[in-house]
Specification:
The complex is a heterodimer of chains A (about 425) and B (about 325). Chain A has about 425 residues and is of the alpha+beta class. Chain A folds into three domains: about 100 residues, OB fold (Dihydrolipoamide Acetyltransferase, E2P), CATH 2.40.50; about 70 residues, Dihydrolipoamide Transferase (Irregular); about 220 residues, Chloramphenicol acetyltransferase-like domain (Chloramphenicol Acetyltransferase, 2-Layer Sandwich), CATH 3.30.559.10. In chain A, about 25% of the residues lie in helices and about 25% in strands. In chain A, the strands form four sheets. Chain A has a six-stranded mixed sheet, with helices on both faces. In chain A, helix 8 packs across helix 9 and helix 8 packs across helix 10. Chain A starts with a strand and ends in an 8-residue tail after the last helix. Chain B folds into two domains: about 180 residues, Rossmann fold (3-Layer(aba) Sandwich), CATH 3.40.50.970; about 130 residues, Rossmann fold. Chain B contains twelve helices and 14 strands. In chain B, the strands form three sheets. A seven-stranded mixed sheet of chain B has the order 3-2-4-5-7-6-12, sandwiched between helices. Classes of the chains: A alpha+beta (about 425), B alpha/beta (about 325).
Chain lengths: ~425, ~325
């Protein structure tokens, strides 16, 4: 029986997807779950898996074509099978279009998850992986109890990253639970920037001047462009900047990180995410969105964290950050950032943010202002923690300060409320122990 | 509730069933005038008479063959084998006749037969009289194999066996006859084919039955002092084998030790372990361990015999291996 693979719906608001590349050629053999093609959505490039095994009988959509969700894109047939009544190229899939591919994508099986993380390492070597892969025991066999495997799968945990303490290094329930609870946290989001800067030659007589280069606007770039224009044109932004005393935070972070392995050290941004989340819990009007008719004050506090990619910018979402311990926040953000850079984000990684944070602290930035990510009410732009002269008791001393600027939507909130938000945020950032309680 | 020995509990069950149903009768070596090799039927001969308490020649094939014939004609015989080791002399009658007749002949006949057999080692009876071949008999469809570990279960299961329409091998462990426990008086029935949790726990599941229940419970007590809470599941019958409490427990503890008195190879522990892997694979966190008798013919010498049989310490170390 021939099976039709349709354009999957990979997110709430996904209406169409562009088939970027066919991975399997017509006539090629496909296993169930194998990657058929890559598609680009509004937010990311993802892989479409085959919902059946057999031969890729027909590609119904050409590379580079955008088609609506549910449109048949491929026909999988048994070897030697003649398929009649092929769906027309580019037609609407209608109600009976199979959704199997979508379902499968949403719940990746263990094999897929492993393949994905392997892919991450291969494609984005400059990004530290969420945890260093343990060297597999002799023979490359991963020793793990069936129970450990199941728990890992349910929690999307890569067993290659877990140390087994059972007989022969077997990973047991205990090891997996430990890995899930505690440890793994995200490496600070620090692109190759600083290391890569080579002193440029300042004077070279007669050097050829390079020609202008024309770059087609990629999908992500054009989405960013469209959304930012929309935001800047339609949302009445106003800005509030505060300088926070982060000496205690930096000291606390130093102390904590002494206890943590390299790959799970906390970043300053992890503290900011937690502090903002706790503050938002007290400011429902800023943890809000604007629709045509009303202001929606969200029950969940989901913090979007801007991640710089080679091709642009993406916001990964730390859900219910007010209720998560710092290390969990750190681990989640790090893992999502790794996936985002590898072009492997899951729909869930980028959905549902209620407030965003953009942190350029690692670039020696005093402060900056960010454009609101609609329909959210506000975004926080975070600069670097710097030694600056401060006046204490009438004397100039050296202090450690970090500036942050809130951009807020004047249709939803006003200056006084936003200022109180920044004050409350100070209470958390300047007393970082409160983030641990 | 009265605290009585397993011997008394079995005696009570037989007595009550013979009083209740005139079709029930006893036959076996020394069951009548002598009152039974293990004194289970003491006083029965005087009360019920020679017709219903029949002494037989020392010929196990004849005992079981005769009992099968009696059952086919509508009586409810309870045949006693002095030890289960003698069942081998009647093996064809038990597994080839009794176990198969009902199904082989399209259900035309029923075989309400109970074979009581004394099993187990530890009494210096030598290699040929001390075996625990329970698994061999449990291999045959059509034959139920019941082996109680407590006096109450002995009474309740035997009464259920006598009322059953199927051939049943009822194994009584020789060293349990003196074990005391609370036994409900009167018509107390324990349905055959229901395993039970003998001791609740959360850290490891010990699956066992018969004499090894006693040993396993002792091991569990010692483990509890070290903070390890073992859940002990008593199978009570090997066929039908009720895995539900075992699987339920295993899904909670993710580790199991199976304790049996017989030899390990092709034994009860192998069956239970296989079922766990089949039915609860995704809950397995450590290989299932089997504790069983050392694979030699059991020595006569007391010290050596005790060394070969599963001990409390064997169970404790097996539990620690899977934790």
């Amino acid at each position: 029986m021939a099976e039709i693979v349709a354009m999957p719906k990979l997110g709430f608001d996904m209406a169409e997807g562009t088939l970027v590349r066919w991975v399997i050629a017509e006539g090629g053999e496909v296993a169930k779950g194998a990657v058929l093609a890559e598609i680009e959505t509004d937010k990311a490039t993802v892989e479409v898996e085959s919902s059946a095994g057999g031969i890729l009988y027909r590609q119904l959509v050409a590379e580079g074509t955008a088609v609506p969700v549910g449109t048949p894109i491929a026909v999988i047939a048994a070897p030697g099978e003649e398929v009649k009544d092929l769906p027309e190229t580019g037609t609407e899939g209608g109600a009976d279009a199979p959704v199997a591919a979508v379902e499968e994508k949403k719940v990746p099986d263990e094999k897929t998850a492993t393949a994905e993380s392997a892919g991450q390492k291969a494609e984005a070597p400059e990004v530290p992986a969420a945890q260093p892969a343990q060297v597999a025991p002799e023979g490359g066999v991963l020793r793990a109890s069936p129970l450990a495997r199941r728990i890992a799968q349910e929690n999307n945990l890569n067993l290659n990253q877990v140390t087994g303490t059972g007989p022969s290094g077997r990973i047991t329930r205990k090891d997996v639970e430990k890995a899930l609870q505690g440890a793994p946290a995200a490496a600070p989001v620090k692109p190759a920037a600083a290391a890569a800067i080579q002193p440029a030659t300042s004077w070279a007589p007669g050097a050829p001047v390079p020609d202008d280069e024309r770059q087609p606007i990629e999908k992500l770039r054009s989405i960013i462009g469209r959304r930012m224009v929309e935001s800047k044109q339609q949302v009445p932004h106003f800005y509030i900047t505060s300088a926070y005393d982060v000496a205690p935070l930096m000291e606390l972070r130093k102390q904590i990180n002494l206890q943590l392995p390299e790959e799970s050290k906390l970043s300053v941004n992890d503290f900011v995410v937690k502090a903002a989340a706790l503050t938002l819990r007290q400011f429902p009007n800023i943890n809000a969105s604007l629709t045509d008719k009303e202001i929606v004050r969200h029950g969940h506090v989901n913090i979007g964290v801007a991640v710089a990619l080679d091709s642009g910018l993406m916001t990964v979402v730390c859900k219910d950050a007010d209720q998560k311990p710092l290390r969990t926040i750190s681990q989640e953000v790090r893992e999502m950032a790794v996936r985002a850079r590898a072009g492997k984000v899951r729909p869930d990684d980028i959905e549902g943010s209620t407030f965003s944070i953009s942190n350029l602290g690692m670039f020696e930035v005093e402060h900056f202002v960010a454009i609101i990510n609609p329909p959210e009410a506000a975004i926080l732009a975070v600069g670097s923690a710097q030694n600056v002269p401060v006046v204490i008791d009438g004397e100039v001393k050296v202090g450690m300060r970090m500036k942050a600027t809130l951009s807020a939507d004047h249709r939803i909130t006003d200056g006084a409320e936003a200022a109180r938000f920044m004050q409350t945020l100070a209470g958390f950032i300047e007393n970082p122990l409160r983030l641990m309680l | 509730m009265a605290r009585i020995t397993m011997r008394e509990a079995i005696s009570q069950a037989l007595w009550e069933e013979m009083e209740r149903d005139p079709k029930v009768f006893i036959m076996g070596e020394e069951v009548g005038l002598w009152g039974g090799t293990y004194a289970v039927t003491k006083g029965f001969y005087d009360h019920f008479g020679a017709d219903r308490v029949r002494d037989t020649p020392i010929a196990e094939a004849a005992i079981i063959g005769g009992a099968i014939g009696a059952a086919l004609t509508g009586l409810r015989p309870v045949a006693e084998l002095m030890t289960i080791n003698f069942a081998f002399s009647a093996f064809d009658h038990i597994v080839n006749q009794a176990a198969k007749m009902h199904m082989m002949f399209g259900g035309q006949m029923v075989l309400p037969l109970v074979i009581r057999a004394v099993g187990g080692g530890g009494r210096q009876l030598g290699a040929t009289h001390s075996q625990t071949p329970d698994a061999i008999f449990a291999h045959f469809p059509g034959l139920k194999v019941v082996a109680p570990g407590t006096p109450a279960d002995a009474k309740g299961l035997l009464k259920a066996a006598i009322r059953s329409q199927d051939p049943i091998l009822f194994i009584e462990h020789a060293t349990l006859y003196q074990t005391r426990g609370e036994v409900p008086e009167g018509d107390y029935i324990v349905p055959i084919g229901k395993s039970t949790v003998a001791r609740p726990g959360k850290d490891v599941t010990i699956v066992t039955y018969s004499k090894m229940l006693e040993i396993s419970l002792k091991a569990a007590e010692t483990l509890a002092k070290e903070g390890i809470e073992a859940e002990v599941v008593d199978l009570r019958s090997l066929r039908p084998l009720d895995m539900e409490p075992v699987i339920e427990s295993f899904k909670k503890t993710n580790r199991a030790v199976v304790v049996e008195e017989g030899w390990k190879s092709f034994g009860v522990g192998s069956e239970i372990a296989a079922r766990i892997y089949e039915e609860a694979f995704d809950y397995v966190d450590a290989p299932v361990k089997r504790v069983a008798q050392t694979e030699v013919p059991l020595p006569y010498n007391h010290t050596l015999e005790q060394m070969m049989l599963p001990k409390v310490e064997d169970i404790i170390s097996a539990v620690k291996e899977v934790l």
